Every structure is written in structure tokens, then in C-alpha cells.
């Protein structure tokens, strides 16, 4: 990834990169510690279509939200040498049969031979969740396993263990 | 009434009036500088209501205003940023000088104001107002745009050019010989290089000398050192303004941030007085004869700044709409044009009409600049729609 770092004299630094979709996405870090998320206009890539001022808390929340796919990508990369194993992120929707139930209720390992390696909830990653971890609607479950196992895991999370 | 009482009432009325004007200006999206100048024109010699008894204060306050304007400008940049800014933008910077200094010099020459008048007017039309430009870019949410770093580095180049230009102008205005002028140039170049070197290597020591956790001590040291340096510089004919600009550059890091925060309101106050005093010293009846030239200069130099920004942005691969935005952003002239004219007028070395022309010109450009920055996009899009070959 080519991240362009541009000094803004008197203000701070701008770091951005171009996405495949043709947008420029980046962050301006002001010298006084403020952050701003910027996204460029699609028709006029030189122009900023949206800029959002973020506090330090908000930036770390956003970083964590974006951290889930990052985690998946990292795990996938780590397992790339192990043939037949891959990583998916599966949602526990509100109204899912497991909303409010502990992780052990899914019996995921026994039924599908997959492992739940992390749960992402409201911008925080909970790594290696224990069997008594309680799911809530909106959780993202990071699961590692064979493609068939992951398909089964996804069905279980959607429909329950009937 | 007691004399002090009258002065206090007059000063109070002036400040309060400026407060109202400033609020009004940003409300309608222009810079308050032209309104401050108009305020000064209204009250000064030949104006509606002449003010008496506040001159000793306003005179010194205006001087402090210039020192603070340049000190804060210096505080905004670290020496490193100046060096990279210079590397990034020197070609565009030279184009900027040629295109924008020439109109002012030519008009002064046409009006028969001599070489020093030409040099002064060249400076007046050359320098964009970094204050107005930065404010407008921030207000319009363009800080993340690709053309913005280009615009900012041109401003950095201009500010450095000022550090060389002001001492030369001061020396020439003081009526020194050609050799004396050359010496002043030499001295100022050496001093600037030294300060940049010191700031790059030992900036933290300069900062430590001024820094203090106690706000009162900090403010006193900061203001004290700024006035000391400014005074010494002006004694050496390097100009007070440049002295404080260089001090600002040498102060770095968190000290610079605290200093900016602390001095900003003070600068706004004293700079406002500076504009008023400039207006006060200009006879409004001198403006009509030069108004035509002011309008002509405004139109020409708006076009030349747009050309400068277009050229600079094109060099960095920005597309046409962005180039137009970069050009329009640079149009505003303001505080530094008045600082230059103020230096010249105070020395008495230039034609008395120069103040009138500079005032009228800055009045136009400080209004035109923010407006141009705002309307450039719709206008450029219209042009592209009408003349599709341009897109």
C-alpha cells in the first residue's frame, strides 16, 4: 500500500492513499493533536468530499472497527501455508438464536471442527474468547477452519443448532 | 472631561466598533481587514470624526501589532518545514514573484513614484495574505485537498521572501546608499541563514530559554524577547518585523504551540489597531484619484495569482478544477501588503498617494480573495460546461 505523507506547513501532516474504487482516503494529524478523517470526491479526486474531525477516543474506536478485517487478513495470511484452512468473519445478528447465549452453546468445535479465535464487539477485539463468553447481537465472530466447516459454522450462527 | 477619560472613551468606542465589524465580516464570509481599514479611514484625518489624544498609544500599539503579526507567522513554521517548503516550491515561488510583483511595480512607475515606490508597490501586490488564505481554506474544508499543500508551500515561500525583502526595503527607505543597501541585503541574508541553522540545530535551547510552566512568566518572557529582538533588529536596519519573524521560527515544538495559543488574541487585538492606524493616517480624499489604478491592479493581480496557483498545482499533477481552486485561494492580499505600505509611508520616502493606493488595493483584495475562493468551483464548472474542450 502506497501511503503518501504530505507535510502541511503550519498545520500538521496529511497521510493518505488511493483506494481501488478511485477514492483518496486519509487522515490529517494536526500539530495540536486533533485528527481529521478525509475522503476524496469521486469525480474530482483532488477535492475532499467529506472531512470528519475525530477525538483521540473516536480515532481509536474507528481503528478498532477497521481492525476486524485486518485481523481476518492477518490470520488468513498466517494460515496461507496450511492448505485447506482459512478465516472468516461471521456476524451474530440481533435476533440470532445465540444472542445472549454463551459461546459454548454453539458447540462449534464438535459440530464443525472450526475454532472461534476472536469476537469483535463495538470496536473492541476480544481475542481467544472462553466458552462462557456471552454473545450479543451485532458481534462479529472470527472463525478459523476448513471452507466446509466455515460454511456449516455460518449456518449454525444464523439458524441455531436444531 | 478629563483627558484620560476622553482617551479611554475613544479607545473603548474604537475597540467595540471593531468587534462589531469583525463579527459582521466573518458572518458574510469576508476578511475583517478591509472593514478595519474603513474604520480607520472614517475616523482619521479628513474623516468623519477625528480622534484626538489616543495617538501615542495607537502608534506604539500599531508597532506591536506588526511585531506580533510576524512573530506568530514565524511560530507557525518550524525551520524544517521552511526548508522543505522552499525545496518543494521554489520554481512556482519564482513565477509567483515575477507575475505578481511586476503589476505593482509597473503601476508605481507609471505614476512616477520612482524606484523605491516601485519596489514598495511590488511587495504590496506580490504577497498573498497567509492569514486570510489559511482561514478561508479551513472554513471551506479544503485542508485535505490535493492542491492545498501546494498553496501552503507557496505561502511559505512568500513568507521567506518577505524575510529577505523587508530588510532591503527598510534599508532603501532609510535612504542609505547603494552600497549600504547591498550591505543590508548581505547582513539580512547572513542573519536569516544563521537563524535557520540555529533553529534547525538548537531550536530547543531557544525554546527552553523562553519556556515556563507559569503562564504569566511565559507570556512576559515571550513578549519581552519578541520586542527586544524586534527593537535590536530595527536598530540594525534589518526591520523589526523580520527580527520577530526569525525569533518565531527559532521557537519550536510545544513552546511554539503554547506561544501561538497565548499570543493569538493579543495579535488580533494589536493587528486590528495596526489596520485602524493605517486607515487613520490615510486621507480618504486621496483615494478617488488612485481608485482607477487600484481597481486595475486588483483585476490584473487577481488574474496573475490565479495563473500562479494554476501553474504550481499543475506541476504537482492536480487536475484543472483543483488548479483553479489553488489559484483562487491565493488571490487575497491583506496584512502584509499593509505592513509593507506602512513601513514605506512611515519613512516618508515614498509618494504620499502610495498609502491611498495601497489601502484601496487591499480593501478590494481582502474582499475579493475570500469571495474568489468561494465561487471558483461553480464558475469553473460553468466554464467547463460551456467550453467542453477545456475539461
UniProtKB/TrEMBL annotation, chain A:
It comes from the Bacteria. One of its GO terms (biological process) is potassium ion transport. It comes from Allosaccharopolyspora coralli. Gene3D superfamilies: Regulator of K+ conductance, C-terminal domain. GO terms for molecular function: monoatomic cation transmembrane transporter activity. PROSITE patterns: RCK_C (PS51202). This is Potassium transporter TrkA. Residues 75-159 form the RCK C-terminal domain. The lineage of its organism: Bacteria, Bacillati, Actinomycetota, Actinomycetes, Pseudonocardiales. It holds the Pfam family TrkA_C. PANTHER family: K(+)_H(+) ANTIPORTER SUBUNIT KHTT.
From TrEMBL, chain B:
GO terms for biological process: proton transmembrane transport. It comes from the Bacteria. It holds the Pfam family Na_H_Exchanger. Keywords: Membrane, Transmembrane, Transmembrane helix, Transport. One of its GO terms (molecular function) is antiporter activity. The chain crosses the membrane at residues 6-26, 33-54, 60-78, 90-110, 116-138, 150-172, 178-198, 269-287, 293-314, 326-348, 354-376. Its main location: membrane. It is found in: Membrane. GO terms for cellular component: membrane. It is a multi-pass membrane protein. InterPro entries: Cation/H_exchanger_TM, Na+/solute_symporter_sf. Residues 21-371 form the Cation/H+ exchanger transmembrane domain. Belongs to the monovalent cation:proton antiporter 2 (CPA2) transporter (TC 2.A.37) family. This is Cation:proton antiporter. It comes from Allosaccharopolyspora coralli.
